[in-house]
Amino acid sequence: MKKDVAVADVLYRHSKSFHLASQFLAPSIRQRVQTLYAWCRYVDDSIDRAETLKEAYESLHLWRESLEKIYSGQRVDDPVGQALQELVLSCRLPRLYLGELLQGMEMDIVGVFAPDEETLYKYCYRVAGVVGLLMTHVMGVRDPRALKHACHLGIGMQLINIARDVLEDWNRGRLYIPKDWLPTLPNVGQRLCRESFRPAVQRLLDRADEYLHSGRAGFCYLDVRNRLAVSVATEVYAGIGEKIRRRNYDIYAGRAIVHFPSKILYAARAIVRAFSMVKIPSEDGLLQCVLNERQAMRRVEI
Fold it and tell me: pTM of the full predicted structure?
């Protein structure tokens, strides 16, 4: 299987929303985005599909070994890994961010509950905020002021994911909502109380709105095509949040899905929003976005 065919197929099969948004990108940027998405998806699926903790840790260990090979220039056998290795070289992707992503996957393995808000946001940073930071490299953004907004956009989308997937995650033995957001903490295997979770889901979405607002403020650092694509993805994701709100934050109302006609409306709204922004000229010099963890976590704050 050719690498470009493999990575393009992953995006189409697993995320129709991101696939729609990617159509606004230049072909070369689209292929980079597909590569990054495919690698993230493969890692996530390998953890989720593990039947035991041992299998999950073994899978995570293999991905860490693969990452070591990618950055040391060794041969990588699987097509998606090969594509990522090329992307790392061409876009100078910081290893720190991909390592943080794997740490986020490890949090999925070891933790059933998010003990507090700080843990929730740390998790969102690791599994989604760093993806926003990686995207600045993929899209060739040069202005370091874009970093915070890119990170916030990823975190906002992840908060919406968590609000949408409460039941699905609980069936996997995971609960990302901080325990102090709930009146009582459910026992493993217990049926969740609909009314107990409404305020918590609303709180997730309110916080997501704040992060998305910050993310949108960074669109001005993108060129027109990239701005259109990111804006479309953002508005479609915001649409998922809107649907959950219309259902009164009911975790038993079924998975919130934005169907194609609604996606077109959100895309139109995104285009209007994208063209209403003024482009800020990029600063000279390469984007300096290799941050240590403490610096990165400070950028998460609004």
Answer: 0.86
Mean pLDDT by 10 residues, the chain (302 residues): 52 58 84 90 89 93 95 90 94 96 92 83 96 96 94 97 94 90 90 95 97 94 90 91 96 89 81 64 35 41 42
Find out whether 119 and 180 touch, Cβ atoms under 8 Å: no
List the CATH number of the domain containing 12: 1.10.600.10
User: Rounded to an integer, what distance in angstroms lies between the CA atom of residue 136 and that of residue 288?
Assistant: 11
Residue 205 corresponds to which tokens in the numbers above?
A: 């979405």
User: CB burial class (10 A; 0-12, 13-18, 19+) of residue 179?
Assistant: middle
- Cβ-contact 235, 273 below 8 angstroms: yes
Length of the chain: 302
Range of the domain at 119: 3-300
Phi-psi label, residue 258: left if phi above 0, alpha if psi -120 to 50, beta otherwise: beta
Relative orientation angle of helices 260-275 and 224-246, to the nearest 10 degrees: 130
Query: How many domains in the chain?
Result: 1
